[in-house]
Every structure is written in C-alpha cells, then in structure tokens.
Specification:
alpha/beta; 11 helices
Length: about 280
C-alpha cells in the first residue's frame, strides 16, 4: 500500500480485508483543520490502490464523528481571501481552495472500495459532507446530524447538497439545508439518511465491521463494478453541482452576514442577519 505514515488527523488500521479509518481531529470533536483536508485524499487513494483492501469503515474517535470544519484553524489561510475588498486574484485563489477541499471529499466517493460511515455523537457540516460521500451510513442512538452551514451564512459547498439528493428525498434535503436544524438518529433513519440505528457505539462499530466483512466476502471486482455502475446515475450531476457552488461561494461568500456569524459565535449570542 502507498505509504500513509505520520498522519495527524486520521488513523488507519487494516486488520484484514476491511480497513478502518478513524478521524482524530486533533481539534475538539474531530474538527476538520488543514491536516484533515490534506490527509483525507492521501488515505483514501492509498486504500483504493491497495489490492488487499475490499471495504472500509469510517468512524470518529471518542464520542463524536465530527463537529465539522475547524474554522479557527482554517481562517489563517482564508482571511485575506474573504476580505470584503478582495478582487479577482484573491477570489480566484479562494475558488481553488474550495475545489481543493472538494477534491478531498471526492476521494471518499471515488474510492472503488465501498465505504461504510459509522456515526456516533455529533456529525455537523463537513461531517455530513463526508458521510454523504460514503456508500452506506449507520448510526448509534446518540447520533445527531446537522447541515448547519446556513446558520453561519455559508452555502454548503463540500457535497452535501449534491450527494444527499440521492440519499434522502428532495423535501427533506431542503428542510435540512434551509433550516440548518439538528436531527437525531431516529429522524435520520426515518428519512433514509442512515440505514440502521444501533443502541450504542460498541454495537454500531460491531455492525459496521460485520457489514463491511459481508461486502468484503464477495468477488472484489464485482463489488467495484456494482459501485461503478451505480455512480453513473449521479456522477455528472454531483460534479456539475460542486463546480457551480464553488463558483457561487467564491463570488458571494464574503458578506457582512458571514462576519456577523463569526462575531456572534465569539460573543456567544444569536446572530442578527441583514442580508448584506
């Protein structure tokens, strides 16, 4: 397998034909900082190329899957690109940054080995983007999900809006994305976001490993063929949607409302959005 040693944000275990990828953070709640966006495609492309790997279980360390984007860690890079007076140069660089991050999550979706996301605790924003790129989603009873970007003045641009339309109904997706509300595991199962819910994290991980083992026991080239054929139904639509939203955010993401969202977070108050 391609060398993926010295990882910071992810851990890879491969006890057999089923590889296990664990989100580590290192920020609280496995938040996704620069190391995560750099390492995720390295890991999934290495596993894709490994002939011994037939299925992958993706989970979070500790109590939660992921709190989503580690905004403080990312702002050092983003601040000059999001300045209100940023002209074509910074906007173009920000477009490249969005598409680079999209490519990180695309590596999960494009991996020829089926990916099972095992979600416990919080799965917010970027966490939902990642599990949307998985083939199958399972949850523990304490799992909670949120496509929260609208609450922080951002149009979700890492794939949830594109990929979840093939997972949940259009009405449910619009409700999640337009409200930014939190839903529990029972609601997630009801709308089809997850296949099954298990009593606790131990039962969840056992079920995810068992399901991955069941997939791994099938002829590997046939499994890859099934995934390849199924993706033909959505591949072009997802690619077009990602390209459009990256362009949209490069043009329109900088706003007074975005600044207000950040300030309100720091001051622990409700934001007051004015559409500016």
């Amino acid at each position: 397998m391609t060398d993926i040693a010295d990882l910071v944000s992810l851990k890879v275990d491969r006890p057999g034909a089923v590889a296990e990828v664990t989100l580590l953070g290192p920020s609280k709640g496995n938040a996704m900082g620069p190391d995560f966006w750099r390492e995720l495609p390295l890991v999934f492309r290495a596993l894709d190329a490994d002939p011994e790997v037939r299925a992958i279980v993706l989970a979070g360390s500790g109590a939660h899957f992921s709190y989503g984007l580690d905004l403080p860690a990312m702002m050092g890079t983003w601040a000059p690109l999001l300045a209100g007076d940023a002209l074509a140069g910074p906007r173009t660089e920000f477009l490249r940054e969005i598409r680079r991050m999209q490519d990180s999550i695309n590596a999960v979706a494009e991996c020829r080995k089926p990916v099972i996301a095992a979600v416990s605790g919080w799965c917010i924003g970027g966490g939902v983007d990642v599990i949307a790129a998985a083939d199958i989603r399972l949850a523990s009873a304490d799992a909670k999900f949120s496509v929260r970007e609208a609450k922080v003045a951002i149009v979700a641009d890492m794939g949830s809006l594109q990929r979840l339309s093939g997972v949940v109904s259009e009405g449910h997706l619009r409700e999640l994305a337009l409200t930014g509300k939190d839903i529990d595991a029972a609601r997630a199962e009801k709308i089809g976001l997850v296949n099954d819910v298990y009593p606790d994290q131990d039962a969840l991980f056992a079920a995810a490993r068992a399901l991955a083992g069941e997939i791994a026991a099938n002829p590997p080239l046939v499994v890859q063929g099934v995934k390849d054929v199924l993706e033909l139904n959505t591949q072009r639509r997802v690619a077009d949607g990602l390209r459009y939203v990256s362009t949209w955010n490069a043009a329109f993401l900088p706003s007074k409302d975005l600044n207000e969202a950040g300030q309100a977070f720091l001051e622990r108050r409700q934001p007051e959005f004015k559409g500016e």
